[in-house]
Amino acid sequence: xxxTTHAIAASLLMFxxxxxxxxxxxxxxxxxxxxxxxxxxxxATGFDVYARVLARHLGRHVPGNPNIVVQNMTGASGLTxxxxxxxxxxxxxxxxxxxxxxxxxxxxxxxxxxxxxxxxFAWIGNMEESVxxxxxxxxxxxxxxxxxxxxxxxxxATGATGPLVKSAAAVKNLLGxxxxxVSGYKGSASVKIAITRNEVHGICGLPMSTILSAWADVxxxxxxxxxxxxxxxxxxxxxxxxxVDDFAKSDEDKQIYGLIFGTQALGRIFLSPPGTPDARxxxxxxxxxxxxxxxxxxxxxxxxxxDISPMTGEEVEQFIARLxxxxxxxxxxxxxxxxxx
Length: 341
Fold this sequence. Notes:
By secondary structure, this protein is of the alpha/beta class. The protein contains 13 helices and eleven strands.
């Protein structure tokens, strides 16, 4: 689902064809206003880092050049922010949000706490097709994934709806790893602290982009290492690390792995409330894509050590719609796989 240069160029050309009167109306609306980006996770997480880098440059590409402000709204691994965005947030184009990729699929999984229809959100785009891994500390005594089939290890995670819990549970339940999962941490930054204190050994569902930026100290020192790849293409720099797809034994297994791990492709999604006026939604979509090609943004992203591989808002919308057609049998197996005993 990785976006191509041609797709970005085509999207920018399409949005560039907006009638001048419409563009002027959008610019008049945003002039002198602020657009809030609500991050559904704690400060210092990858979602927070991406949002703040984006916020430093996005305003130059939105008609009217509004001020961009980042706010954090933690709770239920991003579900609190999703519910707020759908039911409470202003629907005038002054709010965007970002949260973990599992949130849009909570209604599909039968989570009654998810009070939204993902098809009705205004999907703005995605900054990165994430490659996620399970990683573990050197102090754990685990050198490779096979060791996890023999020795129990302790894994830090967030709330029950978060990918850190679901990824760890799926690796445990589907692949037979001996894992004790300790949930309740606020986010990956909190789990990192717990790992350095040897309270837990590892974390699952963490993007490599976060490891190479916020976790670079423990990764570069060798104190933290990936032991299994969970999503995306097999990485050249992780050739010695097995990929979860290697364990699939049937087409149904592949579907299940795709719904649990493959959704990580929506690594850094951005969206606005349902009912956002089309012209403003389109302006935000165009602005996000334009920012991804902005030399100042690119330099900032490189300095911050975050990966950029964008998807358009339309691609995100189609991706979610496609995965939402999974059969009841597949969904039931997914539910069983991510259960924490």
